[in-house]
Design a protein that fits this description.
Elements lengths: L1 H8 L4 E5 L2 E4 L5 H13 L8 H19 L8 H9 L3 H12 L3 H19 L4 H7 L5 H12 L3 H11 L8
Antiparallel strand pairs: 1-2
Length: 173
Amino acid sequence: MAVKEELKKLGLHFIVVDLGEVEIMENITSEQREILKSELLASGLELMDDKRAILIEKIKNAVVEMVHYSDELIKVNFSDYLSKKLNHDYTYLSNLFSEVQGCTIEHFIISHKIERIKELIIYDELSISEIAWKLNYSSLAHLSNQFKKVTGLTPSHFKQLKNKLRTPIEEIG
């Protein structure tokens, strides 16, 4: 919304304003670009000019979208998904991401999957087996091993801690 508002103030007409991407109908002057850049910065947003940085953001957005916001099962390999979605060879995407971010795409994906698992455990609507299935782990053991490697806890122990961290309403005050 902030991006749309700034574009309107500058009299620019947009075709698409998407997460991390804007398509404007007209050519933008360097003066308009600088104004947009400073106004977005004031709103806590950044105008990216670097094609590599833009591609990195697209990779991050695609991973976040797939792990956190897709209700459909992740049945495709992330490498195939990213290659197809971003129209680049996965090796190129992987090398670029590692070079710029200092970690692999796989590590980034695992970090987001673990956060998603924590979220689903806290919601307590699915069993850990169902979470493993939902996030396309090959087995419950695979999810548990990866979760423990990253968090130091088993999913079951995390679930117990989550329950202990909460105080029943009756006991408050």
